[in-house]
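pls design
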């Protein structure tokens, strides 16, 4: 059973320089407040300390966004259970690894940067320039805004070079806003290292990063063909929105990724793509792709399967074999090349492509090097609305889906042929649809939306500019990257609970807030206490035993007058114990 804990409030300190901060002796529960002002210092803030899960040490701006660093101020975070909150790096001299979760070989663990902004840091010449580098274990980047990156280098890098391959690192990157990573000429220096997020490197591909990238908003992230690059194992990409971006979410190296519930909205931008797949054993479900324009680019299609030949789990920078993947319950609407085979070494990807809904007016449903690398996949129950399927296989059926506009998204009507057509083959693996509605155990619908049998309220939708400051990003920068101040929005940040086992249990999460807040749970198997408060505190989440053979998920919504934050609570399925041998007689 997960134990509940209580938060205590420690000492409060006030500083206005790195020297003053470094002179402090900090204990669990302490809070350091940095005075408002514009600081042009060329210095480094080194935040070490030993907080606890329920009593972190916090360094926060006096007012979010009003502690502004315009010089070369960098930050190292080697502390455990420490929180950085509310700072704004605006212009000024950018350094490689500008903010990093270590100091030399001292690494951070269970530490967080939240509600911070970084805008247009300037690197020297063509120097590689990474804004945030995650070291250590179980660290979090949340509710931050990263805007106007004009230099090469991954904006956020999860560094694994130092890490033991057998130990998952467990970082979380959530609720952030990424805007205007300028396009890099592919011939320019370091252009191939200009991802918005990179997790690992070619030599780290066998290491378990176990990093979760969820509920982020990527807009005009054009640095290179790879918006996110997966180069390690066991990572999850959940409920993100990619809008008007050049490039794709790329599973470049590393096996066993889960890509679920993402919106890829190309808005017909040249080179806009969806998901590119190398390596093996990935699960790609419940994603939605719309208006992607590949402009005859074989790398940026809706779903691209790469025919590599290198073995999984090595250190090669080539293309690994694609084996044992599941691509299911996705919807592709009005995109170039819904499923495309890209031949690198004439190896046929293997796996199952099942119950996807594909619509295109510009290309066949299946394209690319079908004869060279497109012979290994199995096709089950897919429905298409195209002029030509592109292959002859009983796993595709031509239908009229009856798409209906729902805001900017298009989904089939409840009377569409997709309704109930997916049976129950994957009911144990696909519990929800793209909106977070529970799918039935039988007669599931084809595509990302459960249009006829979904249960519960919609918890997920594509992010729009109106969500910036309230649902994603820092509270003081708008969707155009303009400073608008706190404007009465305030701050609200909430911790994330671990997955509960099937047994009943409780755990406490922290609430960081400067005004009155309230919380509401949306499922009767979840209870919380307290359900409201003022300022910082904690909330205990309790769940009942799950006796079902399916995992379950629910949402707790925290609100202030201006802000909303959602926390997902997950609980694993009940697994009937295997009976032991009979007693000897």
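designed seq:
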């Amino acid at each position: 059973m997960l134990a509940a804990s209580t938060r205590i409030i420690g000492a409060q300190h006030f500083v206005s320089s790195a020297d003053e901060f470094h002179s402090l002796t900090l204990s669990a529960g302490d809070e350091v407040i940095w005075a408002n002002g514009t600081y042009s210092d060329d210095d480094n803030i080194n935040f070490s300390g030993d907080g606890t899960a329920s009593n972190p040490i916090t360094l926060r701006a006096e007012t979010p966004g009003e502690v502004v660093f315009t010089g070369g101020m960098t930050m190292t975070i080697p502390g455990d259970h420490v929180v950085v909150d509310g700072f704004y790096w605006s212009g000024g001299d950018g350094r490689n690894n500008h903010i990093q979760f270590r100091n030399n070989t001292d690494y951070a663990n269970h530490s967080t940067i939240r509600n911070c902004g970084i805008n247009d840091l300037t690197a020297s010449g063509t120097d590689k320039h990474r804004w945030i580098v995650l070291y250590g274990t179980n660290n979090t980047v949340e509710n931050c805004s990263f805007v106007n990156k004009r230099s090469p280098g991954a904006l956020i890098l999860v560094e694994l070079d130092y890490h033991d391959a057998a130990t998952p690192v467990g970082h979380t990157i959530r609720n952030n806003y990424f805007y205007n990573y300028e396009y890099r000429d592919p011939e320019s220096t370091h252009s191939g290292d200009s991802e918005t997020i990179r997790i690992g490197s070619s030599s780290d591909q066998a290491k378990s990063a176990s990093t979760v990238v969820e509920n982020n908003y990527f807009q005009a992230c054009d640095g290179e063909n790879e918006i996110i690059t997966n180069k390690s194992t066991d990572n999850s990409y959940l409920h993100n929105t990619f809008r008007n971006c050049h490039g794709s979410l790329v599973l470049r190296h590393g096996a066993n990724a889960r890509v679920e519930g993402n919106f890829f909205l190309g808005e017909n931008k040249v080179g806009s793509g969806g998901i590119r797949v190398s390596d093996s054993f990935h699960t790609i479900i419940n994603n939605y792709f719309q208006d992607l324009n590949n402009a005859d680019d074989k790398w940026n299609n809706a779903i691209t399967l790469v025919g590599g030949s290198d073995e999984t789990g090595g250190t090669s920078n080539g293309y690994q074999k694609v084996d044992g993947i599941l691509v299911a319950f996705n919807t592709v609407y009005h995109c170039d090349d819904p499923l495309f085979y890209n031949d690198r070494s004439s190896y046929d990807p293997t796996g199952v492509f099942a119950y996807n809904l594909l619509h295109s007016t510009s290309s066949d449903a299946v394209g690319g090097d079908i004869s060279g690398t497109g012979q290994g996949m199995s096709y089950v129950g897919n429905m298409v609305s195209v002029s030509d399927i592109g292959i002859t296989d009983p796993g595709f059926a031509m239908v009229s889906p009856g798409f209906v506009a729902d805001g900017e998204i298009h989904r089939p009507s409840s009377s569409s042929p997709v309704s109930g057509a997916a049976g129950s083959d994957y009911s144990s693996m696909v519990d929800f649809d793209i909106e977070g509605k529970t799918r039935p155990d039988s007669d599931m619908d084809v595509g990302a939306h459960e249009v006829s049998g979904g249960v519960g309220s919609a918890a997920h939708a594509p992010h729009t500019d109106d969500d910036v400051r309230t649902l994603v990003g820092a509270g003081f920068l708008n969707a155009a990257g303009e400073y608008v101040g706190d404007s009465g929005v305030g701050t609200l940040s909430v911790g994330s609970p671990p997955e509960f086992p099937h047994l009943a249990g409780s755990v406490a999460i922290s609430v960081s807030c400067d005004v009155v807040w309230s919380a509401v749970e949306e499922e009767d198997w979840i209870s919380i206490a307290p359900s409201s408060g003022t300022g910082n505190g904690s909330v205990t989440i309790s769940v009942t035993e799950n006796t079902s053979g399916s995992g379950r998920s629910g949402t707790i919504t925290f609100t202030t007058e201006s802000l909303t934050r959602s926390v997902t609570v997950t609980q694993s399925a009940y697994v009937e114990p295997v009976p032991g041998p009979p007693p000897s007689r």
